[in-house]
From TrEMBL, chain A:
Domain of life: Bacteria
Gene Ontology MF terms: cytochrome-c oxidase activity; heme binding
UniProt GO cellular component terms: membrane
Gene Ontology annotations of biological process type: aerobic respiration
Protein name: Cytochrome C
Automatic annotation (TrEMBL), chain B:
Organism: Oceanobacillus bengalensis
Superkingdom of origin organism: Bacteria
Residues passing through the membrane, by range: 33-49, 61-80, 92-110, 122-140, 160-179
Keywords: Membrane, Transmembrane, Transmembrane helix
Protein name from the UniProt record: Cytochrome c oxidase assembly protein
């Protein structure tokens, strides 16, 4: 793969300003890994869907939970991380005038570390020694090498993140008094969030390793879970922040509009960065050992994360309406017709945004204690994150790939591929509609998540789930078609599409836009505020969990 | 002047009886959220007083040192376990808390901070982090209850809160030694 990429670029002697070929190679390498992981993850997903519907009995050597762990790790950890890092490195390269040689080196070192980590993680899962799901918290214990792989993965990510910080610091030194370009601002926010969000899970993994090797006998389960979710929740919001960056920066340009408000976009970044980490507690609403007062506080903290999303919804639809009206739309909703629905670069993120309306609403419902009791650990939750991640994030990422890959490879998105992309988007959305819809519904009827197919001894309730689970299989099948199409498009755009120039779409501010306030650049302040809020949220319950800890748990292998 | 209004709103909010009850029901929230927020309220209200009484600040706090000493005295006073207990049991002490933290700590802090040189600021960073480190040791290591109103486990929680506070100030301080802000802004 690498050799092909090299040749393609090597043959291009004339370098047109804009794309730095060394930087482009980094992003394309990250994307290659991302979409291979995406394809494998989707195949595993299909196997699960068919199994859950009772249509497919997995062979004895392929355990359902092994498939589930592989699906989660490949899509939630590998695909999203590599895509996000590759995309934001391209963003830094484009908006900050190229990556520094030092930063490029860090990105490659980071990539190598991540590959080593993924090899460890994937091998242990394939060997059947790490069927602990992508959440991997105790008391289930995988092979210790699984966790060692995770350490490499985190170190690799940190190398890339710090590369990003160095590049931003250097740019700011050379451009005193200027605002960081909006896309780079998004990237900085996501990187800051990624670094601070990963501290908790790093501590958790460092606690687990001696336990998994057998050097320590027991582990504090509640503490590990809490540290995991401080990261787990932040992680999904990092993908979301990545998706949102393309909505604010690229989408207005693609539809021929302008940025609604630079300050608003930056404020959204700040709020998401400051408030996010403490949201993790809403994953533990059912956990014992956390007092009600703390849970109440965390419901409030989690709901506050919904606020910037509402700001985003407002901003995006305002841009659509303004652009539509400029193009001569009439009436209350006439602007909807003026949007370029046939352009996949718009269609994919647009469906992503529309998908986020029910996805976000479902999330708000789950955050509430009483409503959560109904759906906790049911298929509803799986349906929820297949909407947020499977629709909102994946389609936004695809939307980015349609213009970023041709931009980097100096090729063009042909009308034919655009049409294929539209078909892909529709197939994928329909698949998710079936699958996620069925999951939500069957979850409300009580079907548990993370469970292989069973009729519970032909229990009437369990049999009642079966018709809905069939829809899940139908959706899964459509999704694999969508995945194959997407992977084909990605590699076509990388190697086969006709040569040409593709623009990196960056929306401009309106002429009468007010000036962005200086305080948005005060990163020290925002980080300090984030740490203060994390301390407020975590010090009391964590000390309680440590001081009043039960005896602790030995490792369990449940499969 | 907007800030002063925000400060006043925060000040009144913090003194609402249900807010007071909630904030004082947990030791760590009492010391690490309620008290600092009172200081923040004073900090935000400071511009109003600075504009209203410029001569007073010029006369009594020309180089920032008296103000910062007053701030440190008030902070030190409220770090004592006994004063927390008294705030809960004696209404007059509670009222003194509501007045002293914003007006005798928050306002002088804001007025003094800009007037202090880097040496003065560094002294404050170091002494605060050392002080909080000592408080952390006291609250974590003490085998007995230090406040009649709070359990030992809450005391330990508070101690760990102090550890993080001390660390945060230390990291910020070290960061100021290496990073020159004027290079970036």
């Amino acid at each position: 793969m690498e050799a092909v990429v090299k040749n393609t670029f090597g043959s291009k002697v004339n370098e047109v300003a804009g794309v730095n070929k060394q930087d482009a190679r980094i992003t394309l390498t990250f994307f290659t890994v991302a979409f291979i992981a995406f394809f494998l993850g989707c195949v595993l997903g299909l196997l699960q869907g068919l199994n859950r519907a009772g249509l497919l009995e997995l062979p004895a050597w392929l355990n359902y939970y092994q498939v589930l762990s592989g699906h989660g790790v490949l899509l939630v950890l590998v695909f999203s991380t590599t895509f996000m890092l590759g995309y934001f490195l391209a963003a830094f390269s484009h908006t900050l005038g190229g990556l520094l040689p030092k930063v490029r080196k860090m990105a490659w070192v980071g990539f190598a570390l991540m590959v080593v980590g993924v090899v460890f993680v994937a091998t242990t899962i394939i060997m059947g020694d790490a069927s602990v799901m992508y959440t991997f918290y105790p008391p289930m214990a995988a092979s210790p090498w699984f966790y060692v792989g995770l350490v490499f993965l985190v170190l690799g990510i940190w190398a890339v993140l710090f590369g990003g910080f160095i590049n931003v610091a250097d740019w700011r030194k050379k451009h005193k008094g200027q605002h960081l370009p909006l896309l780079a601002y998004f990237a900085t926010g996501a990187f800051v969030l990624f670094f601070f969000g990963s501290i908790g899970v790093t501590i958790e993994v460092l606690m687990i390793i001696p336990w998994a090797f057998g050097w320590t006998e027991t582990i504090n389960v509640m503490l590990s879970r809490t540290l995991f979710w401080s990261f787990g929740h932040t992680l999904v919001n990092i993908w979301y922040l990545t998706a949102v960056s393309s909505w604010y920066v690229a989408v207005p340009k693609l539809i021929g509009g302008k940025l609604l408000s630079d300050s608003l976009a930056r404020l959204v970044v700040i709020i998401l960065v400051v408030l996010n980490i403490t949201g993790g507690f809403h994953h533990q609403i059912i956990d014992p050992g956390i007092t009600e007062g703390i849970k109440f506080m965390h419901v409030f903290m989690s709901l506050s994360i919904a606020f910037p999303s509402l700001m985003t919804a407002f901003a995006m639809f305002a841009v659509f309406e303004r652009t539509g009206r400029k193009k001569g739309a009439k009436g209350l909703l006439g602007w909807i017709k003026k949007l370029p629905w046939g352009d996949v670069r718009f269609l994919a993120p647009m469906i992503a945004m529309i998908g986020f309306i029910p996805a976000g609403a479902g999330g708000i419902a789950q955050t509430n204690n009483q409503l959560n009791q109904v759906v906790h650990n049911s298929m509803w939750v799986v349906g929820h994150f297949h909407l947020t991640l499977g629709v909102t994030v994946v389609l936004s990422f695809c939307g980015i790939a349609y213009w970023l890959i041709p931009h980097l490879t100096k090729r063009v998105l042909t009308p034919k591929i655009n049409k294929l992309g539209v078909i892909q988007t529709i197939v994928w959305s329909l698949g998710m509609l079936f699958m996620s819809g069925a999951m939500h519904w069957v979850g409300l009827l009580g079907s548990p998540r993370r469970t292989s197919y069973t009729t519970y001894g032909d229990n009437a309730t369990a049999l009642g789930w079966d018709p809905y689970l069939l829809f899940l299989a139908v959706g899964g099948t459509l999704l694999i078609i969508g995945a194959v199409l997407m992977v084909y498009i990605v590699f076509h755009l990388m190697f086969k599409a006709p040569k040409g120039e593709t623009e990196f779409p960056i929306a401009e501010a309106e002429e009468d836009a007010s000036e962005t306030p200086k305080w948005t650049e005060r990163w020290t302040l925002w980080i300090a505020l984030m740490i203060a809020i994390v301390a407020m949220a975590y010090v009391i319950p964590i000390v309680d969990m440590i001081v009043n800890a039960p005896p602790g748990s030995p490792p369990f292998r449940t499969w | 002047m907007k800030q002063a209004i925000y400060g006043l709103v925060l000040y009144i909010f913090l003194m609402l009886p249900p807010v007071v009850t909630l904030a004082e029901s947990v030791m760590a929230i009492h010391m690490h959220m309620q008290m600092p927020l009172f200081v923040v309220a004073g900090f935000l209200m400071a511009p109003f007083f600075q504009k209203r009484f410029p001569n007073f600040f010029a006369k009594w706090n020309s180089n920032g040192v008296p103000g910062i000493i007053l701030f440190m005295i008030i902070v030190l006073y409220w770090l004592l376990p006994r004063t927390m207990d008294e705030a809960l049991t004696i209404p007059a002490v509670e009222i003194f808390k509501f007045i002293s933290l914003p007006f005798l700590a928050g306002i002088p802090l804001r007025d003094s901070w800009k007037k202090l040189g880097s040496l003065g600021k560094n002294i404050i960073y170091v002494s605060l982090s050392v002080l909080f480190g000592v408080m952390a040791w006291l609250y974590i290591a003490s085998p007995t209850q230090l406040c009649n109103n709070y359990l030992i486990v809450e005391q330990k929680t508070l101690g760990w809160g102090f550890v993080f506070l001390a660390l945060a100030i230390m990291i910020y301080f070290i960061q100021t030694l290496f990073i020159d802000k004027s290079e970036y802004e």
